[in-house]
Every structure is written in structure tokens, then in C-alpha cells.
Amino acid sequence: MTAELTVLALSGVLLLVHVFAATHYKTKQYGVDWNMGARDEDTEPLNDIAGRLDRARGNFLETLPLAIIALGGVVVAGKASDLTAIAAWVWLAARVIYLPLYWTGVPKVRTYVWGVGLLALLFVLGVLLLG
């Protein structure tokens, strides 16, 4: 299996970590009945940690489709290389580092880490489109 596909598979694991972490802290705040119900009722705003984890999950879900397109695309198009593999690993590492930074409320560095991940994906997308 190519490095790009391995990274995509591992990003599925990271997605589960995001979902379960965010849901765990929401359930701690709102209770098990909320979690197991239809969640139609109005709720108070999320506390700081639950809110950060929910936003981090949403941010990951916003960038994951681009990763699927870019990383999967270079594999399907036969354009995968050592450089796209490195970029794939850089993107995944940035996303793994991003979660605890956001979770703990670290400002600025979190944004720089996000930017590194985005640049890695843009590189792969460039290879797909131009390479």
C-alpha cells in the first residue's frame, strides 16, 4: 500500500479520535440522556474544552475531503512519489499535533500547525493538477 493510502487509513483513525473526544466532553456536560436522545432540546453553550474539541472535529472534517482528493488522487493518477508521501505524512503529523493544541487552548501555534498541514495538502494537490 502506498504511503498516501496508509495516511488516509490512519486519518480515519484520527477522525474517530476527534469524534469520540468531542462527544465524550459534550456528554460530560449535557449528560447521557442527551447523548442517547434525539438532541432536539435547547442546550447551554458548550464549556471551553467541549467547545474546543467540537471545533477541532469540525475543522478536521473540513480538511479531510481535500486530503482524500489530493492523496487519493495522486495514487489513482499514478503521480505518487517520495515527495507526495512526505507531504502526506507531514499533513497527518500536523493534524495529530493540532488536536492537543486546540484541546488545551494553545493559541497561534495551533494555527501555524494547521498552516503546515494545509501547505502539505496544497503541494500534493499541485502535483495532482500540474505534475
UniProtKB/TrEMBL annotation:
<keyword id="KW-0812">Transmembrane</keyword>
<dbReference type="InterPro" id="IPR001129">
    <property type="entry name" value="Membr-assoc_MAPEG"/>
</dbReference>
<feature type="transmembrane region" description="Helical">
    <location>
        <begin position="60"/>
        <end position="78"/>
    </location>
</feature>
<dbReference type="InterPro" id="IPR023352">
    <property type="entry name" value="MAPEG-like_dom_sf"/>
</dbReference>
<feature type="transmembrane region" description="Helical">
    <location>
        <begin position="111"/>
        <end position="130"/>
    </location>
</feature>
<protein>
    <submittedName>
        <fullName>MAPEG family protein</fullName>
    </submittedName>
</protein>
<keyword id="KW-1133">Transmembrane helix</keyword>
<keyword id="KW-0472">Membrane</keyword>
<dbReference type="Pfam" id="PF01124">
    <property type="entry name" value="MAPEG"/>
</dbReference>
<feature type="transmembrane region" description="Helical">
    <location>
        <begin position="85"/>
        <end position="105"/>
    </location>
</feature>
